[in-house]
C-alpha cells in the first residue's frame, strides 16, 4: 500500500511568524507518528524560513517513522544532512522568493552537480530521491545520476482548472511513473495533494510514498494532527483497495 509522508513545515512556519518556541514541529511530527504517518518530511531551507537546524537534530532522535529531508544542493545543507543522517533525502529546487516549491528539479542541467552528491549520500546508506516533473528527459537524467527514487511533482495536477486538464495531468503522471519504473527507479509523488484530489493519484500512480503537507496541517487546525493524519491514511487505504480490486 502507498505510504504517507507528512510534511510538518507549516507548523514551523507558524512558530517562526512570532520567532517563539511554539508550536513545535517536533511535537507535530510525534503526533503525526501516532496518527499513522509512515514518513515525516521536512524541508530545511537555506534561509531557515521555517524548519531550523535544531528541528532536524531532534526529529532524528524522536521520530519513529522514516525521516525524509527535502533540501537544496547548497554545500552547508549537504554537510548538515550528512552529519545528521536522515533515512532519506530529497533534492528539490529552491528559490528565496517563492512561497512554496514551484516546480521540479532541473536534473538535466545539474547532472554534474547531482551525480557526486547522490553518490555521497548513497555510500552513507541514505536513500536519495529527486523531486522532478514527469518529463522523459528529467526521468532519464535522474537515472543517469544514480538516484534510487524520483518524486513526481503533482502540482500541475492539483492546480488544474478543469476536469479535462486534471485528467491530462494525471495521464502524464501515469506515463512518467511507468517510464521511471522501466528504468529501474522507485516512484514517489507529492505537492498540492489534498483530501479531495488524492484518490486518483493513489489509484493510478501506485506510488510507494505520497508526501503531503499543507492540506493535512490545515485540517489539523480543526481536528488535531493525529486525527488529520488518520483521515488521510484512511483515504489512502480506501483507494489502494479500490486500485487492487480494479487491477
Fold and architecture overview:
- The chain has 247 residues and is of the alpha/beta class.
- The protein is built from 11 helices and 8 strands.
- An 8-stranded parallel β-barrel has the order 1-2-3-4-5-6-7-8, surrounded by 9 helices.
- Helix 3 links the parallel strand 2 (39-43) and strand 3.
- Helix 2 runs parallel beside helix 3 (53-62), helix 2 packs across helix 11 (225-246) and helix 9 packs across helix 11 (225-246).
Mass-distribution shape: globular
Range of helix content: 40-55%
Beta strands, count:
8
Task: Supply the CATH architecture.
Answer: Alpha-Beta Barrel
Structural domain tally: 1
Radius of gyration over all CA atoms, rounded: 17 Å
Instruction: Please write the string of helix (H) and strand (E) elements.
Output: EHHEHEHEHEHEHHEHEHH
Question: How many DSSP H or I helices?
Answer: 11
The description of the largest β-sheet is: 8 strands, parallel, barrel
Structural class: alpha/beta
Taking the alpha carbons of the first and last residues, their distance comes to 14 Å
Q: Determine the CATH superfamily.
A: Aldolase class I
Residue-averaged pLDDT, rounded?
95
Q: Give the class-level CATH name.
A: Alpha Beta
Question: CATH topology, which one?
Answer: TIM Barrel
Q: Low-confidence parts, pLDDT < 50 over ≥5 residues?
A: none
Strands of the biggest beta sheet: in what spatial order? 1-2-3-4-5-6-7-8
In what range is the share of β-strand residues?
Answer: 15-25%
